[in-house]
Design brief:
Elements: E1 3-5, E2 12-15, H1 21-30, E3 38-41, H2 47-58, E4 62-66, E5 69-73, E6 85-87, H3 92-103, E7 108-112, H4 115-118, H5 123-132, E8 135-139, E9 142-148, E10 155-158, H6 164-177, E11 181-185, H7 192-200, E12 201-208, E13 212-215, E14 223-226, E15 233-243, E16 246-249, H8 254-267, E17 270-277, H9 284-292, E18 295-304, E19 307-315, E20 323-324, H10 336-344, E21 349-352, H11 365-376, E22 380-383, E23 386-390, E24 399-400, H12 406-416, E25 423-425, H13 438-445
Parallel strand pairs: 2-17, 3-16, 6-7, 10-11, 20-21, 24-25
Antiparallel strand pairs: 1-25, 3-5, 4-5, 7-9, 8-9, 11-15, 12-15, 13-14, 17-19, 18-19, 21-23, 22-23
Helix pairs in contact: 1-2, 1-3, 3-6, 5-6, 8-10, 8-12, 10-11, 10-12
This protein binds shikimate-3-phosphate.
Shikimate-3-phosphate binds near residues 163 and 164.
Length: about 450
């Protein structure tokens, strides 16, 4: 449906958001490999996570799901007919992580998805998983994709793209097959799989490479810091690594909270999101808001199920523009559409570079953001790997396009609150992919 959105006078409030989508996918999919039942607290009821829940159920996990609690009872062994097709819906994380598990199991399964998921690249997991010994039958590296699992070989891999999904697919394949693996990353992508393996499993070790002082080639009396290895982190799973089971309590989804923080930032208001995930590989958006001039306060910081969480309050201010380049983009990759909206209201030109990965998300997010910024009347440049956005005020209401992408719908719904006159967003139901109650939450904070 098309939803009308009106400008707001004030942004203020304290809310909670549903459980973290990335963490929820992992705990559900990992249940396929668990020795004992897994209990999940604060499970989000979004379409993506339900796709993972349906997938494991189709593979034999017994699922009891009531409100935000889920109990997963793994099967003694997984066995399904070779013509089994699993629909991953819109969810890239379901498809890529499950592909890893199937690759390392004695199974032959086809993964399918909606039109958006069929357009997303799978070659990035097919290459390493094939090198480990699995067989893939996919048209040009896209879904639908048939996977024939196998007994995999010990493997070492340096990730060519900073992708938590690729990293996780390889680790889960090794775990399913009982072979050792070492994955190296040059840029540290989100580490929820590693944290979960530490929290409810065993056999994982992590090595963080720290820079060492070396003589400066120009002036040897001086030192400069240099990485001793060409990578930043190394994760190893032994052949004995396993999932024991237990309880996973999921923190609120930081990527969902980001829309409400952005609203506070633009309105010069104040929003608190309680019990939200604060894994440092996810929170670069808070650093960005601080650099723009906002104040960020964190209270009640604790670690539960290995993940840091807390109550975060963002207070908005007059915003100034910033540059977002390599090294930063990966830790706010899902927040870049809402960064673009904040940038539209910040003084000066915001430059986002090294973000070509955005073209490969639920929509081509560089193109989708650009299209909607144009509708709003924001001057900007669409670059090969990013955007240059000239900030301003007094933009007019517009008829925004969701582009079949939940994050685009949510980002430009937030923008609508600060435009002159009403706006609309078509296909507003797309928010169900990650945050079905998005508009109720927006109503709570925007008055
Ligand atoms: C995710 C990793 C990121 C992110 C996606 C969720 C995950 O994708 O954009 O929304 O849960 O591992 P990539 O691994 O492709 O960067």
């Amino acid at each position: 449906m098309t939803r009308t959105l009106n400008p707001t006078k004030e942004v203020r409030g304290s809310i909670t958001v549903g459980g973290d989508k990335s963490i929820a996918h992992r705990v559900v999919l990992i249940s396929l490999l668990s020795q004992q039942p897994i209990d999940i607290l604060n499970f989000p009821d979004n379409a993506d996570c339900l796709a993972s829940l349906n997938a494991v159920q189709a593979l034999g996990v017994q699922v009891e799901h009531q409100d935000d609690r889920v109990r997963l009872q793994p099967p003694a062994s997984i066995s399904v007919p070779v013509d089994t097709i699993i629909d991953c819906g819109n969810s890239g994380t379901t498809a890529r992580l499950l592909a890893g598990i199937i690759a390392g199991s004695n199974l032959e399964v086809t993964l399918a998805g909606d039109e958006s998921l069929q357009s997303r690249p799978m070659q990035r997991i097919i290459d390493p998983l094939t090198a480990m010994g699995a067989e893939f039958f996919a048209d040009d590296g896209h879904l639908p994709m048939r996977i024939r699992g196998n007994k995999l070989l010990p493997f070492e891999y340096t990730l060519p793209v900073a992708s938590a999904q690729v990293k996780s697919a390889i680790m889960l394949a090794a775990l399913a097959s009982g072979c050792s693996v070492t994955v190296r990353e040059t840029v540290a992508a989100r580490d929820h799989t590693e944290i979960m393996l530490e929290a409810i499993g065993e056999g994982i070790t992590r090595r963080k490479i720290t820079p060492v002082p070396v003589p400066d080639p120009v002036d040897p009396r001086r030192k400069r810091m240099q990485m001793p290895e060409p990578f930043k982190r190394e994760i190893s799973l032994s052949a004995q690594a396993k999932i024991n089971g237990g309880t996973v309590n999921i923190p609120g989804d930081f990527s969902t909270a980001a829309y409400f923080f952005a609203a506070a930032a633009i309105a010069r208001g104040r929003v608190e999101v309680r019990n939200v995930g604060l894994n440092p590989t996810r929170t670069a958006f808070l650093d960005y808001l601080k650099m723009c001039g906002c104040t960020v306060n964190i209270a009640n910081k604790t670690v539960v199920s290995g993940e840091t969480r807390g109550d975060v309050t963002v207070t908005g201010a007059k915003l100034s523009s910033r540059k977002i380049v390599a090294g930063n983009t990966v830790n706010l990759i899902d927040e870049l559409p809402i960064v673009a909206v904040v940038a539209a209201f910040a003084e000066g030109t915001t430059l986002i570079r090294d973000a070509a990965e955005l073209k490969l998300k639920e929509s081509d997010r560089l193109a989708s953001v650009s299209e909607n910024l144009t509708l709003m009347g924001v001057k900007h440049g669409l670059l090969e790997d990013g955007l240059a956005i000239e900030g301003g005020r007094d933009f007019s209401g517009a008829d925004f396009k969701s582009c079949g992408d939940h994050r685009i719908a949510m980002a430009f719904s937030v923008a609508s609150l600060f435009l002159i006159g009403p706006s609309s967003i078509e296909d507003d139901e797309i928010v169900r992919v990650s945050c079905p109650n998005f508009y109720e939450l927006l109503d709570e904070i925007a008055r």
